[in-house]
Structures are given as structure tokens and as C-alpha cells.
Write a structure and sequence with these properties.
243 residues, alpha/beta, Rossmann fold, 2 domains, six-stranded mixed β-sheet, three-stranded antiparallel β-sheet, binds adenosine-5'-triphosphate, binds magnesium ion
């Protein structure tokens, strides 16, 4: 996928200007930056939920034809349907697909197992903790069999330990299925640990500025880790984010 010079505006406000970057299949990209800089807008744009006023998003090309990649969006709050149990909430993820109910049920149960919620299939959202509800939201996103999962600070309401576990879980599931993940997060440690690239979004004089950090296994350990962390922390500070 190639994002090529896109602009997104709300009325007179240019929220995103001239944004370009590439997303390779299987990458885990974290997007960071100050509040109001346009991170949610960028994710929503990638999900096809916002109008682009200039520029273009090139989807994947197969056999000379542009194909639309299936995306799932995990919002900041789990937005489960309170009158549906866990299983039926997860089934929402695949309701637009043409596969038969038996297969959908089988796959929904598989996803519930993958997020560690076996046994809770018949529970209702109000009977679940916040972390469990977010896991249902992840299972629902996976049930759509997406190629790309866009996650907007999905775990920010949870405590650090739980958030780390869930981020690791998503990273592992993504690796297994070669899914592309784009995550908005405020946690530098989390971003370095799981990402293949961190993109810091800033704004100067009304124009968007992107800074990209490509990460490999080396950047995540020992003294290299601390060097990476320092560089990312500095870049975020310069972008105006408070920590
Ligand atoms: N639907 C909308 N209509 C008008 N303006 C909007 C709309 N959504 C967002 N904006 C504006 O676009 C800008 C970017 O908002 P966005 O939600 O993308 O920021 P963000 O980087 O995700 O911030 P945060 O870290 O607080 O979530 C803000 O100035 C906001 O006021
Ligand atoms: Mg946001």
C-alpha cells in the first residue's frame, strides 16, 4: 500500500497535508504524536472513512489490477453490542462475508480462543472486565479476516500490564497470519517492542511532518534499545507531545 501526498481537511482546517509513506504486507507500524495532530484522522483515512482532498492511496496491485485490502478498525472504546453475548458480538465481524454460518461460528470460536476468552462465549459485555471487552473487540476484528487491522489507542484505558499483554497478543496473531497492523499509541516502550516502524506525526506552521524510524531486532535490545528509545523520545518531544 502506498500513501502518496494525501491531504485531509475538515472545513477550513487542513488536518493532514502532503502525507506520504509506504506500508508493506506484514508490517507493524505505530503512529505517535501530540494530541490533535491528526493520528485518528490518518487511521480513519486509511480505513476509507475520510475524504481525501488531494493525493492518492495506492492499494495492493495483483495481476495488474488494484485490489482493495480488507481492513478492520479497532476503536479506542470496544463498542460491543450490550444485548449480544461474546460469541454473537464476535460474529458481527464476519456478518458482511459470504461464508456460511457454520464456518463463521467455527472461526468466531477460534478467534475467541486466540484472545484467551474460551469459556466466556455466552457472557454479556457488562459481565466482562475492560480488558476482556477489548479482547472481544480484537476477536471481532480478526473474525472479519482482514489483511490490515487499524487500531486507535485500543488499550489506553487499561493498566500497563494488561495493555502490554494485549499488544503482544496482537503482534503474535499478526505475525502468524502475516497481517499488517497500524497502531496509534502513546507508549514509546510498547511501540519499540512490537513495531517494524514508528511514524511520528507532527505539525509545524499548519503543515504535517512525518518522521520515520525503521526498527529491526537489533534496535530492540541492549544499548541499541536505549539509543532507539532516546531518539524516539526526542522526536516526540520536538513534535510537542508531553510525557
Ligand atoms: N469530524 C471532525 N470534524 C471536524 N474536525 C475534526 C473532526 N475530527 C477531528 N477533527 C479535528 O482534526 C484534528 C485532528 O484530530 P484527530 O482526532 O485526528 O487527532 P489525534 O492526533 O488523534 O488526537 P488524540 O491524540 O487526542 O486522539 C483536530 O484539530 C480535530 O479538532
Ligand atoms: Mg486520536
Amino acid at each position: 500500500m502506498k500513501i502518496d501526498g494525501i491531504y485531509v481537511e475538515y472545513g477550513d482546517e487542513k488536518v493532514l497535508t502532503d502525507i506520504s509513506f509506504d506500508i508493506k504486507r506484514g508490517e507493524f507500524i505505530s503512529i505517535m504524536g501530540p494530541s490533535g495532530v491528526g493520528k485518528t484522522t490518518l487511521l480513519r483515512t486509511l480505513a476509507g472513512l475520510e475524504n481525501i482532498t488531494q493525493g492518492y492511496i495506492y492499494k495492493e496491485v495483483k495481476k495488474g489490477k488494484e485490489i482493495t485490502l480488507k481492513t478492520s478498525f479497532v476503536p479506542q472504546n470496544p463498542t460491543l453490542l450490550p444485548w449480544r453475548n461474546v460469541l454473537r458480538n464476535v460474529l458481527v465481524g464476519s456478518q458482511a462475508s459470504k461464508i456460511n454460518m457454520e464456518t463463521r461460528m467455527h472461526e468466531a470460536n477460534e478467534k475467541i480462543k486466540a484472545v484467551g476468552l474460551s469459556g466466556a462465549e455466552m457472557k454479556f459485555p457488562k459481565e466482562l472486565s475492560g480488558g476482556m471487552q477489548q479482547r472481544v473487540a480484537i476477536a471481532r476484528a480478526l473474525a472479519a479476516n482482514p489483511e490490515i487491522i487499524l487500531m486507535d489507542e485500543p488499550f489506553s484505558a487499561l493498566d500497563n500490564h494488561l495493555r502490554e499483554n494485549l499488544t503482544d497478543l496482537v503482534a503474535t496473531l499478526a505475525k502468524d497470519k502475516n497481517l499488517t497492523i497500524i497502531l496509534n499509541t502513546h507508549s514509546i516502550e510498547e511501540a519499540i517492542k512490537v513495531s517494524s516502524e514508528i511514524i511520528i506525526l507532527a505539525k509545524k506552521d499548519g503543515r504535517s511532518i512525518l518522521q520515520k524510524f525503521e526498527l529491526d531486532a537489533q534496535n530492540k535490545h541492549g544499548s541499541e534499545y536505549f539509543k532507539t528509545k532516546l531518539e524516539v523520545t526526542d522526536a516526540i518531544k520536538n513534535a510537542g507531545m508531553e510525557h
